[in-house]
Design a protein that fits this description.
Barwin-like endoglucanases; Pyrimidine Nucleoside Phosphorylase, Chain A, domain 2; globular
Length: about 500
């Protein structure tokens, strides 16, 4: 019948990759079907259909007999203006019963998680339902169940095979601003002839992810075929995982995690290992920074996370090595995509002003990974240092960028504001979380050039009025907003009045 058909209207609204429908409160379909604001509705155009959240608008916004569509809904339905859209209630979501089971303390099997994640990937879950799933899957998750979740994430996405070996990969669990070692590690490892098809996430709760930083220097949203071409040519890549459909359920969950600012151990492990397995890796190095204001706060928690990562990795056929690193302060000087990219380039170019802590950590991680690939134990660091010092790593990095679409210099911010020391003394502590929040309020990662440039480190002696860090922003409004937040904080850098020893 035609009673539930409305004419498509493109609203031009970016709803953060969500499918949203807009109907007038007086619409006959809306009233007859009993739809309310935030109802879930099934939209059909020809053979294409999707589930959308419903917003109710005033009559003046949506013409009579029309239904408005967000940009993502418009693209997925491949609509033309005025084309007929059938509107109906969605079928009951059977997999939510499994979410409720988990919420009340029952253990789920891989088949249960596959049913849930299949519906997640099909975008049948609202953000409220996704939040319920994330909350449920963060409780009482033991090794066996984390393995089930990880395997299910792999099963509902693409899986790559490179027909060469060994295939190496690396990941940092996050929580430490700066720490942009991955581009350096990939360049060093690939320059030594190993295969490293690196897929990375965009930022979840941080001011920049590896994909955000790399995007300031080259193209990262490659298709699967483009990714294969780059790896065939250079033995490695540095691309955004969301563009190649590896563990697509995780990409959807990350969107909600970003809003909630949460990242449970179980979800972290499943997220990391599912993507490494799907990317075709055989051996994976995990960097676990530990510090009072890092994501992992204590050595005990770090060791527990490392142990579970190794155990789950073994269950799904991955060889995992974890290195627990110092997470008391940011690594490098830049916090934010372009500022971190400048640190990466300084290290690769062997410049005298390159941040030494970033260089050392990248070499340690690259050395570990080379040894996982077969370089004799104890020789990895020396081999990595030689590769970097000789310029081979820089040449390989630029070759990878060229294969991905060409290299470009990171942009610079229009506005800068130094933040100075309030007194003489020695830097004794730093709050990583507040620094990260401040960089995000300045515009990172959405604005590539925004963030923080650090001028001091733990143990440095400072004098009153000396810059501790500089805020970078691309608009005056974002700079003002970040400074207002800064005014409400206690000391980000704790400065004692003792003299430096």
């Amino acid at each position: 019948m035609d009673e539930n058909r409305l004419k498509a209207k493109r609203m031009g609204i970016d709803a953060q990759r969500k499918c949203v429908a807009y109907m007038s409160s007086s619409c006959h379909v809306c009233r007859a079907e009993g739809f309310n604001a935030l109802s879930r509705v099934r939209l059909t155009v020809g053979e294409r259909h999707l589930i959308a959240d419903l917003n109710i608008c005033q009559e003046s916004i949506i013409p009579e007999g029309h239904i408005g569509l967000s940009e993502k809904a418009w693209q997925l339905l491949d609509c033309q203006p005025g084309q007929a859209v059938s509107v109906a209630h969605p079928l009951p979501l059977a997999s939510m019963a499994k979410v409720r089971r988990k919420f009340f303390g029952h253990q789920l099997l891989q088949a249960d998680y596959e049913a849930i994640l299949f519906d997640v990937v099909a975008e049948r879950y609202s953000d409220v339902q996704l939040t319920a799933f994330l909350a449920a899957a963060s409780k009482d998750m033991h090794e066996e169940e984390i393995t089930a979740l990880t395997s299910a994430m792999v099963a509902v996405g693409e899986q790559l095979s490179w027909h060469r070996g060994p295939v190496l990969d690396k990941h940092c669990v996050g929580g430490l601003p700066g720490n942009r070692t991955t581009p350096i590690v990939v360049a060093v490892v690939a320059a030594n002839g190993f295969c490293m098809p690196k897929t990375s996430s965009r930022a979840i709760t941080s001011p920049a992810g590896t994909a955000d930083t790399m995007e300031t220097m080259t193209q990262v949203d490659l298709s699967l075929n483009q990714m294969r071409s780059v790896v065939a040519r250079e033995g490695a890549c540095l691309v955004w995982g969301g563009a190649v459909n590896l563990s697509p359920a995780d990409d959807i969950l990350i969107r909600v995690e970003r809003v909630l600012d949460i990242d449970s151990d179980a979800q972290l492990i499943a997220s990391v290992l599912s993507k490494k397995k799907a990317a075709g890796a055989g051996a994976v190095l995990i960097d676990i920074p530990v510090g009072p204001t890092a994501k992992v706060r204590t050595d005990v928690a770090g060791e527990r996370l490392a142990s579970t990562l190794k155990a789950v990795g073994e269950r799904i056929g991955l060889r995992v090595h974890a290195r627990i690193t110092d997470g008391r302060q940011p690594i490098g000087r830049g916090i934010g995509p372009a500022l971190e990219a400048r640190d990466v380039l300084a290290v690769l170019q062997n410049r005298s002003d390159a941040p030494g802590d970033l260089r050392l950590r990248a070499l340690q991680l690259a050395g570990d990974l080379l040894e996982l690939g077969g370089v004799p134990v104890g020789e990895g660091f020396r081999r990595a240092e030689q590769t970097l010092s000789s310029g081979e790593a820089l040449r390989k990095f630029l070759a990878i960028c060229d294969a991905q679409g060409g290299f470009r210099e990171p942009t610079k911010a229009r506005f800068k504001h130094p933040v100075t020391a309030a007194r003489n003394g020695v830097v004794r502590d730093v709050d990583n979380r507040v620094l990260a929040r401040l960089a995000k309020l300045a515009g990172a990662p959405a604005t590539q050039s925004a963030g923080i440039e650090l001028h001091v480190r733990l143990g440095d002696a400072v004098i009153e009025g000396e810059p501790l860090f500089t805020l970078h922003a691309d608009t005056r409004g974002e700079l003002t907003y970040a400074l207002a937040y800064l005014d409400m904080q206690q000391e980000i850098f704790v400065i004692s009045e003792e003299e430096a020893s």
